[in-house]
Amino acid sequence: MIVTGGPRNAAPGTLNQLFFDAVSTYNKPDALQVKRNGRYEPLSHATVEARVRRTALGLEELGVRSGDRVAILSENRPEWAIADFACLQLGVTDVPIYPNLPSDQIAYVLRDSGAVAIFVSNAEQAAKVASIRGECPTLRHVITFADSAAGADLTFSSLETSGAAVDTDARRGVLRDRAVGVRPDDIATLIYTSGTTGEPKGVMLTHDNIYSNVAASRTAVPFEGNDTCLSFLPLSHIFERMAGHYLMFATGTSIAYAESVDAVPLNLTEVRPTLVLSVPRLYEKMYARVLESALSGGGVKKQIFFWARRVADRWADVKLAGGTPTGLLALQYRIAQKLVFSKLQARTGGRLRYFVSGGAPLAPEINKFFYAAGLVILEGYGLTETSPVIAVNTPANFRLGTVGKPIAGVEVTIAADGEILTRGPHVMKGYYNKPTATAEAIDSEGWFHTGDIGELRDGFLAITDRKKDIIVTAGGKNIAPQPIENKIKTNKFVSQAVMIGDKRKFPVVLVVPNWDSLEKWAKAQNILSTERAQLLAMPAIRTKMEQEVQSEVADLARYEMPKKVALLEHDFSIERGELTPTLKVKRRVVDKTYKKEIDDLYASGEETDLVPGRGR
Asked: What is the pLDDT of residues 495-510, one digit of tens each?
C-alpha cells in the first residue's frame, strides 16, 4: 500500500526564488532579530537583502565561483543566514558544519567537500580551522563573523565592505541574473550526516528538494503572517535549516536567534514566540521540571496539580476523539488552566500557537501532557536525505502516537520487513562522491530506504524504531528499544535511558538519574553524600531507581522488560561522542564506553524481573 500526501502543490523552484519572493512580499522591519546589549534588535528584509547582495559580491571578489563549495562553521545568528543566501545566489553549494565538532571531524568535512572557503563565528572556531588548515588543500579563505580577524584571513564586515565597493547597478544585474538562473536541480547544500553509525556522508540536497518541502510544509501548518519563531536548534541540521530558516523566511515569520541553548528559557520570555521548533529532549526536560515543581511543593499545591492534570487528561480524551468538552468538564478545565497550566504557558512567553517536534521520537505520554495543558506539539518525521519532512501532524490531522500524514507530493510505503520507504521531490540527489552508498539508499524505482521501522494507521505514519537499533536477543526475540526508553524517561527520577541486549540473553538498561529529583529524595531520606558516585553505590539509591524504572515498564511483555539496571553518574554528551549534535544517542559509542558496566550486569548470567511475577 502506498500512501500519499496528495499531488505536489507547487511547481519546481529554487531557494533564490523563495528569497526574492519573501523580500518583495513582506518587506517587514523584523525579518530577523538578534540580541545585542541586552535587548533584541531587528533586521529588516531590506537590510537582509542588501547584506546578502554585498556578501555575494564580496565572495566574487575573492574568486569564489558558481559550483564551488563554501563551509559555514557557526552558531545560529543573522550572519549565518546572510552567508547562506549569498552562497545560493552565486550558485555556490554551502556546507554547514556543527560548531561543536572537534577539529579532526571538521577537517574530514572540508577535505571531502573540497571547500574553498569557510565562514567561522569567532576566534575559537577560527583556531580549530587553523589547527587543521594544512590538511585541507582546497581551503583558500577563512572569514570570521567576529569583529577581529584573529585566526582568520578577514572579517565578515570587511567582506561586505569589499562587496559594497562594487555594488553598482551593472553588477547587481549580473548577480540577479545568476541567482535567477540557478536551476531547481542544482545542488544547494551538502549536509554531512551526524552519523550514529559509520563515517559521515555528504547529503546532496538540491534547491528543489528543499523548496518543495517548504511549499508543502507552509500549507500543512497554518501561518498567520505575523508569527515569530525562536531559533535555537543548530542551523547545520536540516530540520532547523528547512523549518526554522527557509520556511519561516518564506512565510514572513520573524526569526529571533536564541543566545544559546542554555538561554532558551530566558529568550522565550523575551521574544514571546508563536512558533518553536525543537527535538524531544527539550520537551522531556520541560516535562521533568513541571513534575518536579509539582511534587516538591506543599500538599495543597500537589493536590491541585494532579487534580488539574486529571481534568486536562479527560478534556484531551474528548478533544482527541473529535468531540467538544462541555458542561462541568469544560468549567473544570478553565479552572485548571487558570490555576496550573497558564503558568506553564507563561514560561513560553504566553503567545505560543504551536511547538513542532522532530529529529527523534517523542513519548506519547509527554505529547499528551502538553496537548492537555494547551500547548500543542505538532510531531513530524523526516531525515537529512528527505529535506527533511516526510510526514507531520497538523491541526487538521492530529493523532498522538504518530508523526502525522505525509505532506503534499510525498509518497510513503512500508516494505515487507517493516522499513519505511519514501519517494518524491524531497528525496536527495545522492551522497557526495559515494555512488555505491547512494544506490544502496535509493532503489531503481526511486524509493529512499529510511532505515526506520514503522506502520501506517488510517493514513497516519507511526515510527516503531530505528532498523539498526532493533535488539534481537539470544532467544530470537525482537525488541524496539526507543519506545521503552521513552517510557522510562517520563519518570521524574530519570534523565537518560539506553537499552542494551542485542545477541544477549535478556535486555538491560543504562540509566542516568535526574539528579535534582534524586538528590532531593535522598536528602529527605537522610541519605547524605558529598559525591554522586558514592550515592549511586548505596543500596537504598539503587533500589529506589530500580523501583522507578519498574513502575514505567510494568505493562511490557516479559521478554521486553529490562532485567537489570546500571546507574551512570554523568549525562551522555556530545563532547564525549555519545550524542549526535541533535542529541540522538550513539548506541555503539555508549556500548563501548560503558562496556564494563554492561558486562557486570551480565556477569552473573541470572535473569531477574524488575517486576516480579509480571509480564506476558
From this structure: 999 999 888 889 999 9
